[in-house]
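A sample follows:
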Amino acid sequence: MWELIRANRRKSLVLFFIMGMFLVLLGYLIGQAFKPQGGGITGVVIAIFVWFILNMISMFSGSKIMLTVSNAKEITPDVHPRLYNIVEEMRMAANLPKTPKVYIINTEAPNAFATGRTPDDAAIAVTAGLLAKLNRDELQGVVAHETSHILNRDIRFMTYAGIMLGTIVLISELYLRTLFFSSSARYRSDSKGGGQGQLIMMVLAIVMAILAPIAAQLLYFAISRKREYLADASAVRLTRYPEGLAAALEKISGSTQDIETANKVTAPMYIVNPLKKKGMKIADLTSTHPPISERIRILRSMAGGANFTSYQQAWSTVTGSPSHIIPRSGLADNESLGFRPPASGEDIEADMKQSRRDLGNLMMAVNQYTFIDCPCGVKLKVPPDYKSLQVECPRCGRIHKVSD
């Protein structure tokens, strides 16, 4: 497994290095366009400095920003024992050193993501809609997928790659806007003073400022899509039940609800890209994720067990491609991992009924409601902005202290 992670990291590092070359070249050309004598080196230094600052912000506050922007609330095991139990199961299966923190996003749209710099400070966030719509096997598939992102170190790498892409876009935008708003007379004057060489540099810088963000974005999406496939394969290895993840992806993609807090920065982190037209289903083919229908067909085509070799064979059959989505070191893993049986129909039905009953209480707990059990059997739910110190039971008339 560790060799597989290292092989995956080596491949991604090549793409990451190419993105870095785009950043350096962009800084050099813009610097030369502004100042022909030594401006290129200054441009490179400024570009790397901007990337470094953004990386520092991401390293120390990236996860917190991501969770805050997504309006995710941390919960304790007593708020949703079933979810915590599954996260702990997958933590042990993946041999992670620490159980990830668990967050819930208050939206009916089903989806999930993982975040964190290392396995020690990782977090898994799921939406309330996901908890309401999925049975235990399906929820386990989603949690296993997100746990795999933590195990494979995808989160840290995608964060750094995203920051690199953001820096290229930021510098390109600033340069093009500066050209647009500056007086054309100034540049004509500069070009007369700097000669034809500076004019050529300026044209090259403009071309680079247009093409570099597009090329870097394509590289970023290539990294993202490969890691989604690998996370699916790793999830099957953890759960030994591919149908759980396949059914979960089917339900998530069939939802028409929207995640209002999702944006272009956070979208690649979700298990399924949440960006879509309002009220419509999620698109099958997006730039950040592999086609959902293809992911489902691969999972349902696995016939030789839950190991990586079986996933690779299913991937090749479905896509018709002879290339390897699983690194060769992963394909050396021929450990016999049979599938486990699904939960019984009665258990699933009871599980879903309990989930729907718990969902309302769950969201109230996340939003800091106070719960008071009255001896008459009524559960009083007191909102956090309730001003009085007492509350009356509507059934029996008993008076309860709010702090009870």
